[in-house]
Amino acid sequence: MVTTMRAEFEARMRELEAKYVQKMKELRDELDIRRRNEVHEVEERKNQQINALMRNHEKAFSDIKNYYNDITLNNLALINTLKEQIEEMKKKEERLEKQMAEVQAENRKLVEPLAKAREEVAELKRALSSYEKDKQILATTKIRLKKLTEEHKEVKWEHEVLEQRFEKVQKERDELYERFTQSLREVQQRSGFKNLLLEKKLSALADSLEKKEAQLNEVLSASNLDPTALSVVTRKLEDVLDSKNSAIKDLQYELARVCKAHNDLLKAFESKMEQFGIPVEELGFKPLESVVGGQTLGQGPAGLVSAPS
Q1: How far apart are CA 132 and CA 140, in angstroms?
Q2: pTM of this prediction?
Q3: Measured between alpha carbons, how far is 118 from 128 in angstroms, rounded to an integer?
């Protein structure tokens, strides 16, 4: 049994070995054919590249050869042209040398006129410099003249305006002066008349008081009144005297206030006259300050005159 199985296994192994050997041979042949084909293709591509390179090299060589041939031909033509130009330049140089000799000879003849011309040019340059300076000064002077002309026009216009304003102010001053003079005379007349009335009234009251006191003293001395009646009469008399004195003081206060108002008005007018440039002497009369019984009035406003104590 084992021998039989072994024989079968060995037979199968030989079959498999022969089969795989055959497959290996076929595979080797196939790979060999593929390798040969690939090698052939590589050789063909290599040959194609070699041919292409050869063609490119031949074309480049031909181009370079043509290029240098052209350069050579151009250089030969240029050399020939330069030779002709050199010959022409030599001829031209000879002509120029002859002309230069002629010009030098002519220059030698023109040395003195040239020196004179240079001197004249120097003088003309100096004159031109002076002319330019004079021209600048003239331009500056014209600008200043134009500016001064404009300023003169402005000043003239301002002068005319100021003259008109001065005439107007002078006219106003004259009118104010007339009104001031008239008002001052009226005020002086009214204040003088009022002061005179107050002084007469005050003098009359004082005289009346003195007469009443004298009469009262005579009556008291003539009558033989008892002390009680005398004291009553005396008290009544004192009351009457007190009321009269109070009235006198009120009148004195009113007189002082009016005199102070008059003096304040005079000072205000004099101040306005000084402000407008009018001398006090042009009034034609001298304003009089009012005084009360030779006493000096205060410096405050008239409304602030204190009542007599």
Answers
A1: 12
A2: 0.28
A3: 15
The amino acid present at 7, given as its one-letter code, is A
- Cα–Cα distance for residue pair 25/17, rounded to 1 Å: 12
Per-residue pLDDT tens over the stretch 172-196:
767 766 776 776 667 667 666 666 7
DSSP 146-207: HHHHHHHHHHHHHHHHHHHHHHHHHHHHHHHHHHHHHHHHHHHHHHHHHHHHHHHHHHHHHH
Structure-block tokens of residue 9: 């296994």
Handedness of CA 169, 171, 174, 180 (dihedral sign): negative
Contacts of 230 (CB under 8 A, 6+ apart): 220
Residue-wise DSSP of 34-96: HHHHHHHHHHHHHHHHHHHHHHHHHHHHHHHHHHHHHHHHHHHHHHHHHHHHHHHHHHHHHHH
* Choice between 199 and 16, residue whose per-residue pLDDT is larger: 16
Cα Rg, the chain, nearest whole Å: 75
